[in-house]
Amino acid sequence: MTTIGVFALQGNVREHLAMLTSVGVEALAVRRPAELERVDAMVLPGGESTTMYKLARSFELFEPLQKRIADGMPVFGTCAGMIMLADEITGGISGQETLGGLDVTVRRNAFGRQVDSFEADLEFPDLGPGFDTPYHAVFIRAPWVERVGPGVQVLSTVRSGPAAGRIVAVRHDRLLATSFHPEMTGDARLHGYFAELVRGL
Ligand code: GLN
Q1: Whole-angstrom Cα distance, residue 6 to residue 29?
Q2: Ligand-binding site membership of 31 (annotated)
Q3: pLDDT per residue as tens digits for the range 143-190
Q4: Which of 5, 66, 144, 147 is a plausible cystine mate for 30, CB 3.0–4.6 Å?
């Protein structure tokens, strides 16, 4: 059976584990290198990217994660997890490291301090019939994607309002990232999409 791990040192871990279980994969909380070795893929949850990279360093998961990503492990990064996957970030704290692997530039807290959180209906035009109806997304101090490298597919942008056109979901090969929290609304379509990606390898 396909096993997908959730980086479990910080962030919305339980919700992601539940969503993964609901789409029929084995879900494992990953806190140590030995647990990372047991998984086929990883979810990097939302939380606080500045804390996340420090914890990944102190629990000796940073380098093993980087190596697995370089070796082609699929990863789904959500919110702070998207920041962790980005090759380049703006608005980070001094010395903030990312795992990298995804050729994008991500701006932290991009939607502005006054807008701590908001919700929006998104479309995923390239993801097929399962995505015919809008995807309701929750954004919390969310980043957006400011630059996409060659080969990076833009999956969704904000439809309206001051942030219209901003990129909030991308995929490059085995790496998937969203600005929002797909684990918070009970809509498991993106976890299902990621599980299919992993199963198809
Ligand atoms: N603003 C957070 C960060 O920079 C991300 C917020 C979130 O994951 N909800 O890490």
Answers
A1: 5
A2: no
A3: 999 999 999 999 999 999 889 999 999 999 999 999 999 999 999 999
A4: 5
The answer, yes or no, to whether any atom of ligand 1 lies below 6 A from the CB of 54, is no
Cα 61 from Cα 162, distance rounded (Å) = 38
The residue whose two tokens read 């998937």 is 176
Cross-strand bridge partners of residue 138? 119
Q: Is residue 43 within 8 Å of 81, Cβ to Cβ?
A: yes
pTM over 0.95: yes
User: In a 3-state reduction of DSSP, which class is residue 33?
Assistant: helix
Q: What distance in angstroms lies between residue 147's CA and the mean position of ligand 1's atoms? A: 18
Give the chain's length.
201
150 vs 166: CA distance, rounded Å: 18
**Could you list the residue range(s) of the whole structural domain that residue 170 is in?**
3-199
How far is ligand 1, taken at its centre, from the CA of residue 110, in Å? 10
Number of domains in the chain: 1
**What's 90's domain CATH number?**
3.40.50.880
Q: Whose CA is nearest to atom 5 of ligand 1?
A: 80
